[in-house]
Amino acid sequence: MTAVDVAAPAQASTVKTGRFVYIASVFLLCAWVLVPLYFLLINTLSSPEAVTSFPKSFVPEFNLGSLEFFWNFSGILNAIKNSVIVAVLTMIISIAVGAPAGYALSRFDFRGRELFRLLILLTRAFPLPLLALPRAVMFIRSGLDDTVFGLALVHATLAIPFAVLITFSLFSGIPLELEEAAWTLGCDRLTAFRKVVLPLILPGITASAIFAFVISWNEVFAAAVLTIENRTLTAFLLASLAESPLYLKFAGGFILVVPALIFIFAVRKYLFAMWGIANR
Amino acid sequence: MNVRYLPYLLILPVTLFLCLFFIYPFVLVSQQAFSGPEGPTLEHFREVVSYWKFPISLQNTLLLAAVVVPIQLALSLLMATMVSRMGKGRDLVLYVWTIPLGISDLAAGIIWLAIFEQSGFLNSMLYGIGAVSEPVNFLSYQNPAIVFLAIVLAEVWRATAIMLVILVAGIGLIPKEYYEAAEVFGASPWKRFVKITLPLLRPSLQTALVLRVILAFEVFAVVAALGGTLFPVLMSETYAYQFDLLNSNAAAAMALIILGISIVSTIVILRALRVPKGARV
Question: To the nearest 10°, the Cα dihedral for A121, B59, B251, A252?
Answer without folding.
Answer: 80
